[in-house]
Design goal:
Blueprint: H1 6-22, H2 25-34, H3 42-50, H4 69-82, H5 88-102, H6 105-116, E1 122-125, E2 140-143, E3 147-157, E4 165-171, E5 182-188, E6 194-198, E7 208-218, E8 222-223, H7 230-265, E9 267-268, E10 271-272, H8 277-305, H9 311-337, H10 348-360, H11 365-375
Parallel strand pairs: 1-4
Antiparallel strand pairs: 2-3, 3-7, 4-5, 5-8, 6-7, 9-10
Helix pairs in contact: 1-4, 4-7, 5-6, 5-7, 7-8, 7-9, 7-10, 8-9, 9-10, 9-11
Amino acid sequence: MAALNEEQSILKDQAIAWINDNGPVAAFRAMRDSGNPLGFEQATWSAMADMGWPGILVPEEFGGSNLGYLTFGLILEELGKQLTASPLLASGLVGAAALILGGNAAQKKACLPRIADGSRIVTLAVDESTRHDPAGIALAAHKTANGFALSGDKCFVVEGGAATDFVVAARTAGNAGDANGITLFLVDGAADGISRTLLRTADSRGYAHLKFANLEVSHAAVLGDVDNGGALLDAILDRARAGVAAEMLGTASQAFAMTLEYLKTRKQFGQVIGAFQALGHRAAELYTEMELARSAVEGALAAIDADAADVPAMCSLSKCKAGAFLFRMSNQLIQIHGGIGMTDEFDAGFYLKRARALETMYGNQGFHRARFATLMGF
């Protein structure tokens, strides 16, 4: 683990204490069982806002603390450990990043303070199928006398059920697959011409399918430059991927901790099963994979904070490494626990389901291996 400064240490300790008391897996189970359509409890989100977590990336002039991505990652990791559901990643990181990177002065002044205090949930709407494919954006934004009219669909929008605003990636020129012609728009979630369908998913979170039917927006809704939003979208997505990787690391590390505890306490043939060489070796191998994933995740977050030239490569590396470890660790959590691991009464299933959702979010391992190879010139 990277050496933490005083502020980071305080925030990490605060997160551990609060999450253990207020957002453990038992709270997630209760939320799931309640059938909450938003996929999180409003009281949980309000408490996070009171602690200032949604404003960690927001500059101080807009009501945030501007503590950086590595600090934000520490919080996301702890939330991942307990599967604590909230819009923190979608709005506090991805939505805030979109405004910080692409917003003009008026947009930042209007949105960032409300992202920081949690009163506005801004999320990214990018994918149009079950596969992450930013290059394949086809949702059309036709020019009108007063701005643009958006028509098309967005799938599996993270926190799409609760979002007050969407950053929508649309095509203003060219065809799907073209490098140019992408424009980002900040869209009011209550605007005429947008409808949302809440989705029921295995991880019980608040995804939604969005349909735009000739939704009219003015030029003031554009984030960045018209037709040249591809690079901005990539930068936002890289930050999203690094954030997801941090949550994945937390989810996987907790799965490892649960498995290790079981190896130390479950007895077979008169001894704890962790004493069997095959299982001991497996635990050692998993620990090594966990620390490699941690290095990749923290390296990506630190690269963003340093505005390093290799941010895209580091973010793809972190998403891929965290994804590979989480996939294996969530499987091992079930396998080593045996029959009890397959029951709903035990928490292992929650980790497996969340793992599968996070692995595909903003690009799976295959996507990021191919992207990393291209970035490295292979």
